[in-house]
Amino acid sequence: MRTSTLRESDVFGGGPVSAAVHALTGEVEPHGHDFLEVAVVGPGSGGHVTSRGERAVREGEVIVLRPGAWHGFTGCRGLTVANCCVSAGALRAELAVLHDIPALRHLLWTAPMAPGAHGVLVTRIDPAAAADAIEEIARLAAGPVTSGARIMGRLLTVLGTIADALPERPVTGASAPHPAVRATLAALELQPAHPWTLAELAGRVSLDPGHLGRLFRRHTGLPPLAYLARVRAERAAALLATTTLPAARVGAAVGWDDPTYFARRFRALAGLTPTEYRRRASGG
């Protein structure tokens, strides 16, 4: 099965958000992303392929893919899929505020970054709510919007329409992250290759390591070092797809100096070995 990688430089027109509504027929080859994608499924039929296998899609499904995750569609017959894509860099910068909204934190971070998810969340909302979300994505895709505030407003409308219809309630903290959690998230995102320990992270925010661990897990669903591993896997996926660096150097660049350990951790988090991921990312 061939896989390619969609890159921000090919999809985004210089802004932090890209959107489109597609009527799919036949096959959509498996492809990865170096950005975050939210796909809403409308009427039609087809199959959805991820690292966990193939399954039939249903109207109302919402598919969230973290950077580095891959998927594809098979046997599509008039299948409507609306895509709302968000720059990974923007999620770490001007759109990081989305992490403060519990429902969006669950949708975009906690659920797809959970152990065994391989960076993919598949859930389902009422088809009527999905139709509303598809309509909002179509509006977002309809024309150029240069105002950052207007882009944020339209993106929040899309994501809010989905989040309000989710059947599952967020299991992480219902409030904005504690300042110590916010500072720890920023440190891990800014320097994923640093050999962080829980003790060092706790010392930076003047908390007991156990207390920081509990606060962090309450708001993200993961312990700090497990969250770091997910961030490293996403950065490694981008390097594997967009550079010719040897896999061992990719691992070292994101903080995993031991090639064997890097291969094991990457496979556990992405569903493929680094070599397999690169081969599929190049369409081989």
TrEMBL record:
<dbReference type="InterPro" id="IPR037923">
    <property type="entry name" value="HTH-like"/>
</dbReference>
<dbReference type="GO" id="GO:0043565">
    <property type="term" value="F:sequence-specific DNA binding"/>
</dbReference>
<feature type="domain" description="HTH araC/xylS-type">
    <location>
        <begin position="182"/>
        <end position="280"/>
    </location>
</feature>
<keyword id="KW-0805">Transcription regulation</keyword>
<dbReference type="InterPro" id="IPR018060">
    <property type="entry name" value="HTH_AraC"/>
</dbReference>
<dbReference type="Pfam" id="PF12833">
    <property type="entry name" value="HTH_18"/>
</dbReference>
<keyword id="KW-0238">DNA-binding</keyword>
<dbReference type="InterPro" id="IPR009057">
    <property type="entry name" value="Homeodomain-like_sf"/>
</dbReference>
<protein>
    <submittedName>
        <fullName>AraC family L-rhamnose operon transcriptional activator RhaR</fullName>
    </submittedName>
</protein>
<keyword id="KW-0804">Transcription</keyword>
<dbReference type="GO" id="GO:0003700">
    <property type="term" value="F:DNA-binding transcription factor activity"/>
</dbReference>
<dbReference type="InterPro" id="IPR050204">
    <property type="entry name" value="AraC_XylS_family_regulators"/>
</dbReference>
